[in-house]
Prior knowledge:
By secondary structure, the protein is α+β, with helices and mostly antiparallel strands. The chain is built from 24 helices and 18 strands. The chain has an 8-stranded mixed β-sheet with strand order 11-7-6-8-9-10-1-16, with helices on both faces. It has a 6-stranded mixed β-sheet with strand order 12-18-17-15-13-14. It has a two-stranded antiparallel ribbon with strand order 2-3. α19 (about 505-515) packs antiparallel against α20. It is globular, with a radius of gyration of 25 Å. The protein starts with 8 loop residues before the first helix and ends with a helix.
Amino acid sequence: xxxxxxxxxxxxxxxxxxxxxxxxxxxxxxxxxxxxxxxxxxxxxxxxxxxxxxxxxxxxxxxxxxxxxxxxxxxxxxxxxxxxxxxxxxxxxxxxxxxxxxxxxxxxxxxxxxxxxxxxxxxxxxxxxxxxxxxxxxxxxxxxxxxxxxxxxxxxxxxxxxxxxxxxxxxxxxxxxxxxxxxxxxxxxxxxxxxxxxxxxxxxxxxxxxxxxxxxxxxxxxxxxxxxxxxxxxxxxxxxxxxxxxxxxxxxxxxxxxxxxxxxxxxxxxxxxxxxxxxxxxxxxxxxxxxxxxxxxxxxxxxxxxxxxxxxxxxxxxxxxxxxxxxxxxxxxxxxxxxxxxxxxxxxxxxxxxxxxxxxxxxxxxxxxxxxxxxxxxxxxxxxxxxxxxxxxxxxxxxxxxxxxxxxxxxxxxxxxxxxxxxxxxxxxxxxxxxxxxxxxxxxxxxxxxxxxxxxxxxxxxxxxxxxxxxxxxxxxxxxxxxxxxxxxxxxxxxxxxxxxxxxxxxxxxxxxxxxxxxxxxxxxxxxxxxxxxxxxxxxxxxxxxxxxxxxxxxxxxxxxxxxxxxxxxxxxxxxxxxxxxxxxxxxxxxxxxxxxxxxxxxxxxxxxxxxxxxxxxxxxxxxxxxxxxxxxxxxxxxxxxxxxxxxxxx
Length: 651
């Protein structure tokens, strides 16, 4: 598993994890502080959620070989098959047995949980580009939605209401409905509420309703990643009521919840933000902000943080940042193009974001807004739920600011820095600028096909897009790349993600046929597309039900490492190559989402975000200068989509 590819989980598969109805508001509360109320207790199903199964060893070996085959020559595959056979009969059987025994002693969680936390927290590479993705909100069309302070105030107000709804247990459980028309209603929910928590999941299952894990919500707010030498920590400060604001490299703080837990009125939040704006504009930009240090190597940041916190006032103010509900970043730049929007929200300037925070709300002068989030604590299910709920609440509650604002209780968070810290900030900023300046982005909106077109042709949008990416890459570079698509395993207790490997023998056959169109009729090409799509759907289903191979192999690898055992399979070039993810892919679909973005996970890779919209198929591609040609890939993708469309239009 390529270490950095795991951050894609937040973007890649939320729509597989739960239906649209799971993230829409339903029900209301007589108390305006709540976004919603719920018939079902928020954690009603958590106790009885099934545990993530440890796959059978023979199945994992078979799936691993199947994923390797399109990447290897016949001779390489024969060697790989022999290596896997020895692993399955030898040390692999030992490691699998130990993993099963270990899993049996930890029934409160999943077999991958601790290893997954360690993987993220032990990584020393910087968070921006390597881990933190962003998800941009659709523009707010309410009056004032194009104003930075109004947009920020309404987003914070709805965030406060979301937090109170969660803290008071009134947030609806995450549910995936196989037949939402028949089961997503108050009558069924009332019936499910009668099942005791110990068996509540089984009651839902009988109604073809699948509850999802909600354990990650506990770290959505008031949480941060704390840099430490060798391994970071996750810290959560439950009950804190304030937010931190970052503007022009300077920090401020004010409460968005009252002492009784109720939400501070949006008018008060607006006044606080106007005060922040006034203070920030009345001083010069602080390019020597300690925010720059969150962009750096984790050990370097840990060392600088120790120096900073040696000063008592620094330690107190840093805790205010760590414990804040979230970080609000008021951007200076006002992007308009897709590339500029992505650049601003993905990284921006070194002093413009606090990348350690679980959740950052980023708002631009023209009202464009996004979430940028740290990835160790969780995946995209909780983030997308938050984003959808907040967006919908803002949309339903337009805000007209007062004509005059009086003084607001805003606290400045200032830091006393010595020369060693200033030097560390300068060095971090230089490395950040060098890294981000090498990132290239290219985009496409292909109008020849859209959601309705694919539905009419009885095609799955994800499968078609994955095939088009394989065809585009082959046309540009002439080989099949190791490809990654993440799938949520939130249907299981403490589930995280499993990997889908979209490069299959079926897609390879389809690519070969399209590259020799003169020898294949449209009907033959359609048949090959259908086979590739069916295979892709099978892989998605296997991953979602805990039957992938990547997490299983990764857990066994960690057991081997911890006991000092060398495993030939894990040290092989073939294992390294399949986990050197050249094509990292992610899709995201929601009425609240404009787009999401991320960087490649390896220097010579692509980061590809895509979506099937009502009016077009869109894709955004990132790559590093001198490594991959993003414009060339977009051109190849466009030609691939045209050729695929041509096949369907002959029908």
